[in-house]
Every structure is written in structure tokens, then in C-alpha cells.
Amino acid sequence: MPSPILSRLSLFLACAFIAGCSRPLPAPPVGKVAPIPAGAEVTEQLPGKYGAMLVTSMPGDIATLNPLISEDQSSSSAIGRFLESLTTLDPENGEIIPRLAKSWEISPDGLNYTFHLREGVCWSDGEPFTADDVVFTWQSIYAKELDPATGQPVIDSETGKPKLRFATRPAYFHLIEGQEVSVAKVDDLTVRFTLPQLYAPFLLFGGGQDILPKHVLAPFVEDGTLLDQWSINTAINNPGQLVGLGAFLLESYRPGERMVFRRNPNYWRVDSAGQRLPYIERIVTSIVGDSAASNIAFARGLTDVESIQPDNVTWITRAADKFDFTIHDLGPSSSTSFVWFNLRNGSDADGKPFVAPHKLRWFQDIRFRQAVSYGVNREGIVQGVFGGRASPLHGYVSVKNAKWHNADTRRYAFDPTKARALLAEAGFTLHDGRLQDAEGHPVEFDLMTNNNNNLRTEMATVFAENMASLGIRVQLQFIDFNTLIRRTSESFNYEASLLGLGGGAPDPYASKDILMSGGRLHLWNPQQTEPATPWEARIDELMRSIGREFDETKRKAAFDEVQAIMAEQQPLIFLVTGNEYVGIRNRWQTVVPTPLGGITWNLDALWAELN
Amino acid sequence: MIAFILRRLLSLIPLLLAVTLLVFALMALAPGDFLTPIKMQRDIPAGLVEQLQRDFGLDRPWYVQYAKWLGNVLHLDFGYSWSFKVPVADLIGQRLFSTFLLSFCSMLLAWCVAVPLGVLAAIYKDSIFDRVSSFLAYAALSVPEFFLALLAVYLAARTGWFPLGGATSIEHEFLSVGAQLLDRMHHLVLPVIVLGIGGVAGLMRVMRANFLDAIRADYVQTARAKGVPEGLVMFKHVLRNAINPLISSLGFAFSGLLSGSLVVEIVMNYPGLGNLIYQAFLREDQFVVLASILLSCVMLVIGNLIADLFLAWSDPRIRLENQDS
User: What angle do CA A62, B195, A236 make, to 5 degrees?
Assistant: First the structure.
């Protein structure tokens, strides 16, 4: 009989169970607490109370805590809690403001950037933060693979350039037209960057690079394992190694369950009374399956702060009194949705044209694209798909990015009459309610979008109905995301598509891959060797000047023109942008919601009464 | 016996080769790869995508990738997870305990409830108890697991009696050992019930049928005729014979120990292996997918082996050595 075995098994299980549960908390990853730095940033924050615990949830687990390889939202937000950069964007007005660098100078020729670091700042383990850390960070990013025998850089046979030791996003991102920025230490608190050519967004993109601790990571650059460091294994077994300059430190991590952050006692910002921030003692972040589950946790009073999806606002609001929270409406978000037509000339390897020639003629006709844009009922999408919790999108830059938004571009308010007039002008005629082109081809096209995004499939359905009233037949294809990307960016075998793009950095140059004709995300006709149309050539020229120009007024003027061209030409027919909502429990003080920073941008200043 | 076990384990080799080859081919046929979603992000330079493609070996034909992977596996190197950048073995190890605990508890539940119920239903055949328990068993078997899991989540959300997913609560780290244990059990209640209920129903039906078969056997008549008390007949003679087929099902249960809870874990947000594997499939994180499939195959074969061994051990009439002759 199996009973003795069963009892032995259960005994073993009980032991394993206890062992699995009672693993002691690792010691807080804190060395000595350094005095408040001389160069501490004194904020206007009125003194708050210490000791509260903030509970949040996060849709999706982290993949890594190494800023060089992080690709997903969850990892990046966790990294943002414990690492800092030289500069950052002011979430209230979009200007670049000091962070670890208290000030900087740009040489008259615009090629030398000198950053002055704050004095007396220490890493979370008590080691001083100096120019060496900044230089180390940039040298690690640019590090080259060395031949062990000769000590010379290894040349990559595919590209003909020295092979990178660590192939990471920053290593490519911090190249200016393929050339590196050189970084030199002037003294302990001064770093100088020398650019190979004029590059206006350097203060934002270069200054925004997370700084890594040399005293912790230097050995791993030596032995080539830098990218294996600060993995989830580190987070589980040795969170103390995650030394940072941010307001919080990782205290513990359980995969798939939660992360616990603790206050960094060596943080370098103080309130108006000279007390060290942050006030929050611990942040507990539960890892949940998706944003719906995360929203439910907030609605049940389990978490303190949450970004709420537009379609959940109504029912979550009903619990506001019971759990004492407030939902703030931050207005239009920075994510976009749009329809575009395949404008690519030419044919595939088998000689088959990417787009049937007569259809390509319609798509390449500006009047056709404008007519489609006039025929889209954006207000209808806002009401029908988003229940009113979205805003029509008229141009490339959302109104959320107030600094760069151009309000004076051509607008396409819903106007079927105007759409029909434009189509008639372009030679299209109506027969029995169906639109035909001059050669008698019925006007119809396939529109694809990814099948795992409800909002997109619903928007596509409304779009198809709008087109039907113009006599255009749209066949909807809801397909797998990977298939869609392959068709839009590799085989170019499609007619029209509906997608969206996330916000990205607010600087116009962050859009160069989308707007410039050689870009990978120039969706309607990517990676062109020569601009296919005069207006794309003009956008290229304007974008290049935005990259080089320092004068903010001139940059703004150039980007205004880019937006005007995009509005006139309608290569991307923008639809709507969902509004952003954040909820927070009312016990939290110093809550300042801003469209750019959301509600947690000043996490180091939030405080609550202890109960 | 040893020869039998060895033969079984050797048969694993062609099986694993075939299965992994198939998985590799299917993943190569599926549109896109691990890097496809990255391509749609802003400010990912084209150079980086190409470099990563070369680093991951995604620019080579799938059979070359397969050969390379196979070579590494022979050295017990199961590769790196592309999304987590840690060895696959570490990743699976981190989740193993949670899933094992969940599956084991639900198996325990299924056995402890199903065996007595099945026996009672057989002894009191055609009584009202038998009818009701049969009805409930069929009902339980026909409700899909994911639906039951959704109902459980709804119950938890509605009443607040049970936690909404997870394996431990937020305060877990700050609790005493005893409280931690209770906390963990509290989180296990719903997933264990959802996962175990199908097993209860199935096992109970099998137990009932076996018991009825055994009751009608000649030796029972003999025992009764000898005047052996009825209780002794039932539990000493009938039960021992009726439970034999169930013992072998213990082996099959073993094979599902790590992979059987996938759906429940995903719906109820339980931080186990199933959740990890599901995410890996979605992201096409190749080596995690392969390692998980290897693990399932090995568990299946070993499970079957254990079932056979158990059977031989509990039923002296079965002799493994002579099976093939």
C-alpha cells in the first residue's frame, strides 16, 4: 500500500514548503549613510512625514534590471526607481532640467558639453559618485571586442567596423551619424563630452543616459559579462548589488509575484526644510497578469496608485468613495492610432508588384488620401469605441506635447461632401453606390490590423463603415501581429494597415525613424535610399536641420512645417488618441498630476499620514 | 527490472529528438521571431536589430540553429533566455517549487476525496447518493478548467474571502514563519480546488467502476460464504484489488505535475512555471520554450515508467521482464 510513501512524501513536502516560505529577507542593501551632500538639490517641497508604504501593481513581470538591455515597460519603470541620469525632462513644462548634473555649458561651436556634477553625492552603498562613473558608463557602452592575442579591436566581417563588446541599444542610440561621442573627465566633478558634429538633442538623449556605478560594475566590463549582470537572478539572490542613485533601492524580488523597494538613505534631493527625500519608506509592487487585473486591484482598494484604461474609468469611479480615491483626467495621451496606405513602388523578387498598379495610383494620389481622411468620423470613434474617453487626433504631434504641437495645420473634420468632391476631382465616379476609378476599377482595398488589440479592431470596423458611405469597400483583415509586421516592413505585401505608436521622447528628433524617408518606421514606404517624393525630401531636409539646430525657435518652426506637410499629405491618416486617467488614494499628499509625467513623477515627494 | 528501466529511458532519446526537431521546425515556420516586436519600437537602430539577429543566430537556417542547440544540450547547457538574459535552467528552477506545490496539493485533494466517494458510490450503488455524486462528477468533468478558474476569480473579487491571484500576500515578507505558512495556504485554496476538481470527478468514476467489478468477483463470494465480516471483505479484499488501476494513474499524474496547471496558473495569475512558459511562447523566447517541452516529455516518460513500476509492485501477477516476450 502506498501509505508510508505518501506520508514520507508529505513530510518532505512540508519541509520544502517551510523552507520555501521562510527564506529570510536579505539585509537591506545599504552601506554607510553619508551626510546630506553639499550639492543636494533643494526642492520647493514643504516638509512631509516619513515612513509610509506605497502599494502599486504592474502589468507584466520584469525581464531584467540592467538598463543596457531593458526593452520592456515593466523593466524600465523598475530601473527608473534606482538609477538616475545627468539631465531629465521637466514633466510640468517639457524643458530639460538638471538631475545629477547641477549645471552645464555648451561651447560656442556647439560641440563641447561640460557637465558639473553635484558635490558630495553618494551611491546607495555610501561610495562617492564622481565623474569617473559617468566616463565609465559611456566607455562601457562603446567598449569594443578586443582580440586577446594582439589587444587590437576585432573587426566585424559583416559591417567592416570594430565589433562592439556589448551589442546594446544605447551603443547604437548614442551614435551621431555613425560616430561616437568622446567623454573625458576634467576633474572629479566635471565631465566633458565632445560631439563629432552638431547634434541638438544631445542634452536630452545623452544627458538622459542612466549612470552606472563604476565601483560595482567595472570588473564585469573587464571579464565581458556586463550584460549578464543585474539580471533577475541578481534581484532574487543579491539585491544589494543593485547600487543606484535613485530615490529607492530594490529590497527583494519574487518572480511573478512582487518587488519591494526601500527608501535610499543616501538620496541627494532635500525638501525646503533641508530634510532628505524621499518620505516613502517602502514601495511594494505586485506583478499581475495584465493591465485589466491591475485596474481591478486598484478598484478593490488593494493598491494606492494606478493608471486606468479609458474603458474602465466608469465602473472604477463607483468605488471611489468606498476606498477613498480620486481619478485624475490627464487629457489626451501620447499614444496614437492611424491608417496608412502602402505607397511603395516596385515589385518583389518574383516580379509581382507590391501593390496592384491601379491601386497604387489611388494611394499615391494626395486627393484620395485627403478624401479618406475627410470621410473618417473621428468623433464617432471617440464615442463608439472609447465611450467618449478619447480625443480626435488631427496631426502628427498630440496636443499633450504642448511644446511641439502645431495647432495651425490642415484639419480633417468629418465631411463626406468634401470627401466626395475630392474623389470626383480625382476622377472617381459613383455607380450604384460603388465608387469606381476612371478606368472602371471598383474602389476597394484590404485593411489589416493586429487581432489581439480590441480597440484597433473596433476602430478598423468603424473606419470600414465610414468608407462604405463613400462607396469604398474595405475588407478587414485581423491578423497576428508578427505577420503584420513582416508584411509592412519586409515583404511589403499589403494595401493598407491600421496601427498605433507609443509616445517616445517628446523631442522632435525622436521621430526621425518615422518621418525621414530612410527610416525603419517610415511605415508607408520604409528605408528608401532616395526620397520618393518632393515632400518626403523636404521633410528629410527639415528633420536634418532639427538634428543640428540649437535655436529652439528655429527648431520649432522647422517641426511646425514638418507637421504641416504631414497634415497636407496624409501619409498617416490619424484617428484618435485615448485619454489618460490615473487614480490615487486620497491619503497621499503632494499629488501633482501632469500630462507628461503622469502622477508618479514626483514619487520622492509623495507622503502620507501613518495610520 | 533494471533492463526494463534502461530500455524505457533509452527510448527517450529518439522521442526527444523528434519532438524538439518538430518544435524547432514549427517555430521557424511561425511568422516573426523574438525580435519582431522590437522592430516596431521607436529608436531601435537597424544596426542593433541586425547585430542581435547574428548574436541569437536567427539569421541562420533553422536546422543549423537546431544542430547548435542540440550540441549545447548534450553538454547540459540549455541556453539563455533571450528576454530575461539568464540561463534557462535558472529561470525554470525559480518557478518549479510553486507549480509543484500547486499540482501536488490538487493531486492530494483529488485522491483524498475521490477514493472514499468512489467506494461509497459503489457500495451504495443506485442509491440517491450514487446518483447525486455521479451527476456532480459528470458536471465537474464537463466544465472546462479555464471557466472554473474564471468563476473562482470572480468569487474572490466579489466576496474578498480569497486573494485575487498570486502565491503570497503583500505583507508576506514581514510575517512570522507560521503566518507565512497560513498566508501561502490561503493563496493555494482556490487554485487547488479548481485544478483538483476535474481529477476528483474522473478518479471517482474510475474508482466506482473498479470497485463494482471487484465486488462481483468470485473470491468475494468465497469470502462472504466463509463468513468474513462485510467490512473486512470490502476494505481488505475488494479495495485492494479495485485500487490497482488507480495506482498506475498515479504515474500519469506525475507526468502532469509540472505542465498540468498551465491554464489555471494563467487565469488565476499564479506565479508558476505555466505562466513563464506561456509568456515564453508568446514572445517566441526559443530556448525557454524548448526547455519546457523537454521537461514535459521527460516527465511524461518517467511518469509512465513509474506507473508501470507501481503496477508491478502492487500486483504480483505482473512481471515486467517478460513483457516483451
Answer: 25
A178, closest residue in chain B (CA to CA)? B47
Distance in Å, alpha carbon of A221 to nearest chain B alpha carbon: 16
Q: What angle do CA B107, B108, B114 make, to 5 degrees?
A: 85
> How many residues are there in chain A?
611
Q: What is d(CA B205, CA A228) in angstroms, rounded to the nearest whole number?
A: 52
Tell me whether strands A607-608 and A588-589 are parallel, antiparallel or unpaired: antiparallel
CB pairs under 8 A between A and B: 153
Contacts 24+ apart (CB under 8 A), A130-133: A130/A188, A130/A189, A131/A185, A131/A186, A131/A187, A131/A188, A131/A189, A131/A190, A131/A191, A132/A185, A132/A188, A132/A214, A133/A211, A133/A212, A133/A213, A133/A214
- The DSSP string of A564-595 is HHHHHH-SEEE-EEEEEEEEEETTEES---BT
Predicted ipTM? 0.80
Contact in structure between B165 and B269 (CB atoms under 8 Å): yes
Count CA atoms closer than 13 A to A541's CA, side-chain side: 8
A chain contacts of residue B279, beta-carbon cutoff 8 Å: 61
CB B36 within 8 Å of CB B44: no
Q: Which residue has the cell 473486512?
A: B232
Could you list the pLDDT tens digit for every one of the 325 residues in chain B?
788 888 888 888 898 899 889 988 888 887 778 887 777 776 677 778 888 888 888 888 888 888 888 888 888 888 888 888 889 988 888 888 899 999 999 989 988 998 888 888 888 888 888 899 889 888 888 888 889 999 998 888 888 788 877 888 888 878 888 888 999 899 999 999 999 888 888 888 888 888 888 888 888 888 888 888 888 888 878 887 788 777 777 777 787 788 788 889 988 888 888 888 888 888 888 889 889 888 888 888 888 888 888 777 777 776 665 554 4
Cα angle: A355, vertex A358, A361; to 5 degrees: 85
Question: Quick one: which of A162, A151, A129 has its CA closest to A246?
Answer: A129
Q: Looking up cell 466608469, which residue turns up?
A: A314
Nearest CA of chain B to the CA of A383: how many Å? 28
Best CA proximity match to A515, nearest among A489, A530, A495, A537 = A537
Least CB–CB distance from A173: residue in B30, B45, B160: B45
C-alpha cell at A253: 524580488
Test mutation, A72, A482, A483, A493, chain B, max B CBs within 10 A: A482
* CA-closest candidate to residue A468, choices A411, A430, A499, A440: A430
Q: What distance in Å separates the CA atoms of residue B304 and residue B296, rounded to the nearest whole number?
A: 12
Place of cell 495647432: A407
List Cβ neighbours of A440 (8 Å cut-off, separation of 6 or more). none
In angstroms, how far is CA A398 from the centroid of its own chain?
A: 15
Residues in A touching B99 (Cβ below 8 Å): none
The C-alpha R_g of chain B, in whole angstroms, comes to: 25
- From the CA of A594, how many Å to the nearest CA of chain B? 23
Nearest to B264 by CA among B171, B197, B317: B197
The interaxial angle of helices B88-123 and B273-283, nearest 10 deg, is 130
For A192, residues 6+ apart whose C-beta sits below 8 A from its C-beta are A112, A113, A114, A115, A183, A184, A185, A186
Q: Give the DSSP letter string of B141-161.
A: HHS-HHHHHHHHHHHHHHH-S
CA-based nearest distance B215→chain A, Å: 20
* A454: three-class secondary structure by DSSP: helix
- Are the beta carbons of A255 and B86 separated by less than 8 Å? no
CA distance A564 to A515: 13
Question: How deeply is B220 buried, as exposed, middle or buried, from its count of CB atoms within 10 A (0-12, 13-18, 19+)?
Answer: middle
For residue B111, what is the nearest residue in chain A, using CA coordinates?
A: A6
- A20 shares contact with chain B (CB less than 8 Å): yes
Does the beta-carbon distance from A63 to B83 stay under 8 Å? yes
